[in-house]
Fold this sequence. Notes:
- This protein is of the alpha/beta class.
- It has helices at residues 16-27, 29-36, 67-71, 87-98, 108-125, 141-148, 163-175, 179-188, 197-200, 203-217, 236-244, 308-328, 370-380, 410-422; strands spanning 7-12, 40-46, 63-64, 78-81, 102-105, 128-130, 156-160, 227-228, 247-258, 263-274, 286-293, 297-304, 347-348, 355-365, 385-392, 398-405, 408-409, 431-435.
- The strands form 2 sheets. Strands 7, 8, 9, 10, 11, 12, 13, 14, 15, 16, 17 and 18 form a 12-stranded mixed beta sheet that branches. A 6-stranded parallel beta sheet has the order 3-2-1-4-5-6, sandwiched between helices.
- β5 (102-105), α5 (108-125) and β6 form a beta-alpha-beta unit.
- α1 crosses α12 (308-328), α4 packs parallel to α5 and α5 packs parallel to α10.
- The two termini are 47 Å apart.
- The model has no long low-confidence stretch (mean pLDDT 93).
Amino acid sequence: MSERRSVNVGLCGLGTVGQGVWKHLQRSQAELSARLGLPVVVRRAAVRSLKKARAIKFPASRLTTDPLSIATDPDIDIVCELMGGIDAARDVTRAALKRGKIVISANKALISAHGAEIFALARQHGGHFFFEASVAGGIPIIKALREGLVANRFPRIYGILNGTCNYILTEMASAGAPYAGVLAEAKRLGYAEADESLDVQGWDTAHKAAVLAWLAHGIWVRPDQMIVEGIDRITPADLSNAATLGYGVKLLAIITRDFSTNELSVRVHPTLLPRRNVIANVGGVFNAIAVTGDVVGTTLYIGRGAGQDATASAVISDIADAVALIRYGKGAHLTSETAPPPRQGCHIAPPERIRSRYYLRLTVKDRPGVLARVAAVMARHQVSIASVLQHPADRPGAAALVLTTHESDERSIRRALAVLARLSSVLERPLLLRIGDFGD
């Protein structure tokens, strides 16, 4: 057993998450020390400004504006990279791993962009990289995939991974409020960033989906290899139409693998879920993930996906695992050195192999024969219409035409959509949503 007196932590970033980690480590210091066998001491923290007022009282003598000095400090055992962004975070992570340190990160964008490099550095230099907080906040989904479900292969993982989008869609559906107004309220409440594009256009969820895909299948999927669509074009009318049809709408990450053909698909898009589906009823800022394993079947995880306390909980969980690794060498299976090996020849599924049913909204001229022309285009591209709803549109002389389809594929529906958008009778860019039939 080590003769250590403490395990020393450095915080690179003392924003919302960093302050939460400090607060809860201080509050639970005695209990954590008893459970871990050693005290966990935050020795230093890096900040952008020494003068900024903070909600916590962190000793001024332990603050620095140089995060690299923490990454390279020989007295620091665990470096918590909580800065956000990519470039500076990558520099800190690389510097710490090259010195054989343990790095804990909540940075899904960094992992999505540079995960392969990070894990290679950890293996090369004897460092370790923990990242439970990078996906779904306080939900221990990474531990579930790597530990509790280790006996499984995963044909499907899907769920809500962005609390901002889930809050917006929940409020739009319950209040019938327009997107812009709900977004403004989400910003006021602190659920959405000043620049909301990363969340509402699906990129934040795509970064998290990349991490989950790697955990489940050992393959890095870039966002440009995914279908990535956001929620910013959804209207209260779409949510009302979905409800009429028996669905709720959620922004989902969907990761599927066909083990017979070895094709992997990673998608992020708004999805109509049947009301009986549990995830369809998860509201507000909560996240929810359904994981289907070939041994265990489907397991479901629901909880707060963001916020100071939820994310700090996940970071401190990683700190606890890191302490066990330092003291006893236990828990090495938790680290990046044991990435799941990809199956030989596993590849990204082409569009024609990605199948779904679809919801299509068209704003069209309110004239006879328009529906027939739309149906002819769909039929020409082998897309079969299942149902039709028609309502007056907001603009004079126009109608909102809502179609659902039988199962088709991405290539066929995209080709049909391109032709429909060019029809003189179609007045606005069509809106396409997928229908999720997961059988849960």
